[in-house]
Amino acid sequence: MTASLVIQTSFLGDMVLTTPLLAYLADAGPVDVVSTPAGAALLANHPAVRRTIVYDKRGRDRGALGVMRMASHLREARYDSAYLAQGSMRSGALALAAGIRERVGFASSAGRWFYTTRVPPIENMHHAARLLALGTRAPERTVDPDTLRPRLYPGAPERSAVDALLATARPGAPIIALAPGSVWATKRWPYFADLARAFANEAQIAIVGAEADRALAAEITATAPDAIDATGRLSLLASAELIRRAALLVTNDSAPQHLASAMNTPTVAVFGPTVPEFGFGPLASRSAVAGHDALACRPCDRHGPQRCPLGHWRCMREITPDAVASLARQLLSFGTS
Ligand code: SF4
């Protein structure tokens, strides 16, 4: 039995994409995860995880004192190996200070000087496969889709929250979930309201997102008044449960896309300034990507800038509602009318 510690304190999507690595490591022994408070909530009920250790690196655990306190806590568990799914100097230093003899991370990470095993990351590979390679130590371009698919496990509280939310849903209508938000403004496709109007008669529209996405949700409910607005009303894991119940998710290149991958919900992902080749495309078994392939300026940024550096934002403005609706209809089972 090998006791493993995975350190993942990046964005929520990264935590979702780390779950195939967690499942792989769990075959060899117990797996604990160091996570941000938000990431920890995503891992509730996960069968591959023995314990989630919350590391509030921007709050009560910030600074060198926080690292040392966390390191002393981790030291007690006597882990055999640490996997640096988040590659900062701080995470590497934490694993070293925790006395973990084997420390595995990417050769390109800032914290690589703290690692005992450096795995070469491969460009144009899905990030879930890159993270899995920390466990296998052998990056493989072709990974069985079932092994690569992330997984989350909503429980009874999440099911109850979604039951309550959907109490007013149209009976028998398939749910189309829309996720209009993104932290990066240029990644927000501007036509979700038009898409909602196109499907309003044949589906129950549900809007997924955080509190910060409420204004975007209001634009949608203005054109599709029957839409159920879940923004700011569900936990992340409950949002995953809502997406699980949907016939389709239409999303930007943002965290809900990864929730859909974890619940294997058919997905249309709209990519503007970024491209799936960065490693963050949908992994649901039925999925499609909308992107402006003819645009020379694209991609222009690994995350997506807050403003289009050229001012025209054609990468998103020129992806029409009809084009996305057509992809959506191809993935839905209720036809092409
Ligand atoms: S530069 Fe091109 S890819 Fe970048 S935001 Fe503007 S239109 Fe999109």
Protein model, in words:
The protein has 337 residues and is an alpha/beta fold. The chain has two domains: 4-148, Rossmann fold (3-Layer(aba) Sandwich), CATH 3.40.50; 156-331, 3-Layer(aba) Sandwich (Rossmann fold), CATH 3.40.50.2000. The protein contains 13 helices and twelve strands. It has helices at 12-26, 37-42, 63-75, 89-97, 127-136, 145-148, 156-165, 192-199, 214-223, 236-245, 255-263, 314-317, 321-331; strands spanning 4-8, 31-35, 51-54, 81-84, 102-106, 117-119, 175-179, 204-207, 228-229, 248-252, 267-271, 287-291. The strands form two sheets. The chain has a six-stranded parallel beta sheet, with helices on both faces. A six-stranded parallel beta sheet has the order 9-8-7-10-11-12, sandwiched between helices. The termini are far apart. The relative contact order is 0.11. Bound molecules: iron/sulfur cluster (SF4). Residues 186, 272-273, 295, 297-298, 300, 308-310, 312-315 line the site of iron/sulfur cluster (SF4).
List cofactors, ions and other ligands. Answer: iron/sulfur cluster
Helicity range of the residues?
A: 25-40%
Under CATH, the topology of the largest domain can be stated as: Rossmann fold
How is the largest sheet built, in terms of strand order? 3-2-1-4-5-6
Query: What separation lies between the terminal Cα atoms?
Result: 56 Å
